[in-house]
Batch of 2 targets.
Target 1
Amino acid sequence: MSKPTYYITTPIYYPSNKLHIGHSYTTVAADAMARYKRLRGYDVMFLTGTDEHGQKIERRAQEEGITPQAFVDNIVDWIKDLWKTMDITYDKFIRTTDAEHKETVQKIFKTLYDKGDIYKSEYEGKYCTPCETFFTEHQLKDGKCPDCGRPVEAVKEESYFFKLSAYQDKLIKYIEDNPEFIQPQTRQNEMLNNFLRPGLADLCVSRTSFKWGVPVEFDPGHVVYVWIDALSNYISALGYLSDQDEAFKKYWPADVHLVGKEIVRFHTIIWPALLMALELPLPKQVFGHGWLVIDGGKMSKSVGNVVDPSILVDRYSSDAIRYFLLREIAFGQDGNFTNEALITRINSDLANDLGNLTSRTVAMIEKYFEGGTLPEVQEENEFDPDIKTLVKTQIQKAEDNIEKLFFNNALEDIWVIIRRLNKYIDETMPWILAKDEANKPKLAGVLYTLAEGLRIVSIMVEPFMPQTPEKIWAQIGLQRGELTAWDSIHTWGTLPKAATAKKGENMFPRIDKEKELEALELASAQTQPAQKETKPEDKEKPQQEKQEAEQLEYITIDDFAKVELKIGEVIECERVPKADKLLVSKIKIGEEVRQIVSGIAKYYTPEEFVGKKVVVVTNLKPVKLRGLLSEGMVLCAADDTGKLVAVGPLGEIVSGAEVR
Ligand code: MSP
């Protein structure tokens, strides 16, 4: 009987040799799911790749005096190496510069044109020649370029358009009829209420102002622009419209497109409309995950706060980083990244919980039983039934959560078992049992329960931490095979009674937090200049996409009214110990005094900051930063180098005054 199939994708990445830990989140999550499905017997297709066309790439290659192809080739190798160090097991890596992909894009374009879903018209906008950038009327500042302030020209460019508007009603109906299609639920409401119901405009899908794209075969001055080029990777990778389309027949529709929240709209409106136009089934699900943020803000090269995943993998292992990413961030929501949180997790969950359970179990079997082998004669004890019931329940919960892509919950489910087993050691006190020869069968029973529990846990962590299981198996006498198969965890007692144990390497040594935090800051400071030399990723995005993304962020006056802004006066301020970037201030806002932590220590001394009047977001949910409560946020302007300047009133005004 043929295996069931499972097709999972990540977005294709813009070529950048500085993908940061946030980028690796999508890929690590997809990899965990792909591994899980393989362990459950599925025939998996896990697709990732690179989105290599566009004006910015063309320009950067020109600056470096190389062809765009040579430019992207170098970067793609770097990205593949990064995925290797993070143990990403993709089945196919697609590049939008692959000949097969380009051919499929051309065929798709022609099919849609022949059907009347693509038509030729004119793209109208304002153009800033020095910045080589298009803007919409709305984006201009006093009618001038919002970036450099110079005058702009009205331009018209001949373009092909896709009739997105024609699919509006069909899309609304599809989304309403298929509540599983967009996950989490909140993103579904966002798409319906903010984009679909207000109405869709047709979409510009070709450009003539640059060459680095897929040429429109029947109109050579045009190149296919971002949407049809990038989104169709999910089917071109499977051979759609080619002679070799077995994979397409086998895997399409995708089970899940995993994407960051900012590109949910492209995947749940534009992509489904294109598929409808091609008369193809839609992916079963689009899951929009949240961002990994730093101090509440987006990780980005332009802010200079990116965290390099390879530095972290080198220092702590890929398994530890994968664990952290999937455990710390509630899937679907944003999660904060700090070095401190990372080290705390490694020490508590990996070194203490899992590491100790392994080393204590193995050490006791070796110590109390000849040759490190348990005897066949074993007795149950009063805690065993509870352990068995708990293990069964937790397995069920973890499996359910993984299926829903709620990895943080699944890991918590597994850690409930680990922590219970550690408690079991304290309850049964093997060292006391070992004192009396008559208790040997009971002692053997206790150690067997621990070893069997450890076996089950080691199998369950495999999708998330692929290197750890074999390290544990080597210590409890197992090799990959039937006894380590996922299905075996459903049968308690699979480990042979005469289990053997042999001490192995310390998988997760405890980290000295203070020392390590310093070392990490140093390591990341050394890489920052290199990061700043490369252009911000946003700038690499093709211009119109940037515009689309910006349009995406329009808010209404009612949305704006939700943010409470007030004038505050800094009355006290000091540095946060052991945090180079942070100042903690007492800010008077009318009658009230709030404590607020801000990442501005590089730009203001506490003495300079005291007495300043600043704009404070006063209804922001309080957070703890480095253990200090922060009840609001001081608004700052940031330039491209990451420099920050606090924003304040231009005239005399009392603290507590509302900013509107
Ligand atoms: N090329 C487009 C996708 C086209 S798909 C047809 C793109 N590329 S990207 O390189 O900018 O982003 C790739 C993935 O990384 C996206 O899922 C994005 O959400 C994710 N992340 C980038 N920064 C992130 C964080 N700070 N946190 C979590 N994920 C983030 O978009």
Target 2
Amino acid sequence: MAGPANIGGSRILLRKLREIMEAGGEAQQRLDRLVTMVASTMVADVCSIYLTRGAFHELFATQGLKPEAVHRTRLRKGEGLVGLVAETAQPLNIADAPHHERFSYRPETGEDPYNSFLGVPIVRSERTFGVLVVQNRVARVYGEDEVEALQTIAMVLAEMVASGAFGDLSGLADVEARPSRPELIVGRSFSDGLAIGTAVLHEPHAPLGRVIADDPVREEQRLDAALEQVRGSLKEMIEGDPGRLSGVSREVLETFLMLALDPSWEVRLKHGVRAGLSADAAVERVRGEHRAKLNAARDQYLRERLHDLEDLDNRLLRSLAGVDANSAGAMPADAILIARELGPAELLDYGAERLRGVALEEGAATAHAAIVARALGLPLVGLLPGLLSRVEAGDSIVLDGERGEVRLRPEEQVLSTYRQRLSLRSARDAEFAKLRDQPAITRDGQRVALLLNAGLALDVHHLADAGAEGIGLFRTEFQFMVSETLPRLQSQTLLYRDVLETAGDMPVTFRTLDLGGDKVLPYVTAEREENPALGWRAVRIGLDRPALLRYQLRALISAASGRWLRVMFPLVTTCAEFDAARALVDRELEWARTHARAVPAKVEVGVMVEAPALAWAIPDLAGRADFISIGTNDLMQYFFAADRGNPRVWDRYDILSPSALRFLLRIREDADAANIPVSICGEAAGRPLEALAFTALGFRRLSMPASGVGPVKRLILSLDAQEAAQAVRGMLTAQTETIRAELTHFANERGYLL
Ligand code: PEP
Ligand code: MG
């Protein structure tokens, strides 16, 4: 075969492509010339371009097939070998096409004599909108160089179609080469909030109009500069601040750097540039190769390395686009980050300064990025099908973390509705800010302590802004989840000390590791369980394998030296379990004393009521537990037998049902009788209507996400606790599934601010 087997050949091919493009003339003529040129350069009997129009792949140009088939031959999506290439977005290279099971015979094309077939997708920004094909009479498999050459042509072609180079071609308007219409994608909200902004792709693309190099020498210089920048910033990260919150361990960064210094990576990149591609296009092509390998790889280790390589490709592309590889240098000030999936460390690297929100094609409520987003106060919407292929960098976006949806390229009317909603929200926030330093006291003088649920040191910094009186639940497992290796004693101690110091005089309740169930650690291989929520989790792991728990208690005790330490255990089912856990605290205190370490001035040990069995054993906890905190997220999932993470059932039952409220009332009464302070710390405590019900049931300590403090405080200030108690008690005997409507009506009537 001629040319493309070598770099010189590729360059000639790209030059010819450019000449055709720049020669002008009618669009159809240029397409025709293009297929003729490709067929002759690649010594192919046939070269055809199919573009996807609506539900069909339509033949737009051909050299070798019958000319009358152009615009007449239309293959349904998924039909034939062309359909297969488009569907998989992968090249198909076969010697005996007519006998392939997906071959679809179209007599009008006259393709009978051709045996070998090479098809590559025409794809841009994850959007496949056509297929480029070469065919030959002789039955043979095409060489790697030929596949690569055809892919390069397809890449340029994709670019030309997307940038409107064939603007006047009939039928092209229906080819969705780049998204342009307003679209709504419905996903799920993983972090509340509302944002209007500009799309920034975490996995960027070569910019439009920059695929073929104008000046290959300059492109190589650009590539060198970007490589140097990426390597330099990795080195800087390794040598820089080791205690960064992102938890990216030194080893991980070192592996990264090693890959970045790997000459074979550089060789592949240079190969593309020397073949006439722009530096950006060369990187994008190498990333495509890594991605294809990643999709095919089974081995976990290999997959991780390929993932790292893809990450490096992305850094390089960002660097070429003039964006610093680590920080958010050239990001617009209203960036909405778009990614398939995002690690917590990556999100922390972007920082909250220029980010308005995050949209993920995948993601999960418990995903660590969601946790970080909440801590940063950013809305995050995930599970958005097809997001990456439907959004372009620079698109305007509305991110609706209240409803869990995104609007791409919205019309002005939609935008203005959202602007109104945004300004309502900020007016509301300003109102809450005014209440910040005011204690939450009902109109009839009942004081309700509002506390914060936290999990990262970042959250603790919001303590004062939020207007809370302390931290009612510090989820210690987050540090373990956002870290890439098991946090050592030292880093645990540092975090806890930092939290206590930031909280100052305000109380902090640390919950010991709550792992298992949906909370898995990337570096601990867990046994697959049929029913993880009912499985080996939380304190059950802690008691069976006490080393980890004891280390954690040691870190807590050391961090709280001379101060007040409050610890509680998650998912305790029996009093005996609580006793065993408490004994570990005593043992660690003893250890500290015998080793002459400073100990806390005061230690209180509490328990979370999350298992119904323990909820019925409160009287037995008298004199044993110093406090109780009701975790309604778990307690309700067990009470209603409905998985809290399963979208089909998680909101099927209402905590505001008479049965659940009677259950909670019983716990509160038992706790009072046993003289144990009790609080509620599930998400429900942060919703005004639920908080109203809980206050009416006699609860005086509520712990909630930061976003709940303002609204709940406003409610508490507006209500009469005694009047509410009477009303709610009256509703507890109602024969309804929920008192939500009735309670809302009552609150509105009484002027309570929900
Ligand atoms: C709960 O279960 O209500 C709770 C507060 O704990 P988590 O959500 O961390 O399981
Ligand atoms: Mg829980």
